[in-house]
Amino acid sequence: SQKIEQNSEALNIQEGKTATLTCNYTNYSPAYLQWYRQDPGRGPVFLLLIRENEKEKRKERLKVTFDTTLKQSLFHITASQPADSATYLCALEELAGRRALTFGSGTRLQVQP
Amino acid sequence: GAVVSQHPSRVICKSGTSVKIECRSLDFQATTMFWYRQFPKKSLMLMATSNEGSKATYEQGVEKDKFLINHASLTLSTLTVTSAHPEDSSFYICSARNPNLGRGISNYGYTFGSGTRLTVV
To answer: Can you list the pairs that A62-69 forms with residues at least 24 positions away whose Cβ atoms lie under 8 Å?
Structure first.
């Protein structure tokens, strides 16, 4: 089974800077890698999905990379704002079987004004 | 599109009672829904996969008699925590896979309910 590691439990950055979050996984199987935002007491909200044959995906101030050789995804928020403060979850969806998501433990991002 | 409504958002119950949590897909049909639980500052752990018209598939270590799942229609899945105890206190979240995924429409991934905070006293 997959093991997902987000090696920063918390990240504090200054407003306007770029936040970079890391997600590493152990096993390999064809998968979609997804990033979610979770605010306290709420369910996760989908942000971006990247397929195994894609290197990079962008959406507004967000950018995700997927390196299947390193088994790693990087999630960037450029020009960060205090409203970006939340927990960000990395998740893998394997393309076989029940296709549920396996989540990392999350990185709590705090953007200081 | 692809909204999942979860109810109730918060419930407090006495030890030994049962609690039902509902998860509805509002504008799409979900043949499969997933139930997760989340402890404070921890990640989401998959409990079971709910399949419309058939038995749920439980993850290893999850008691099927404790956490009863019913998926009687294409838009409704329920999780009942039976004979709840304080250790069942947690944040329970359901999700469904966005039906538009893979059809060339923007990649919406999975849609999650807003979660249910269960406190057993």
So the answer is: A62/A35, A64/A33, A64/A35, A66/A33, A68/A28
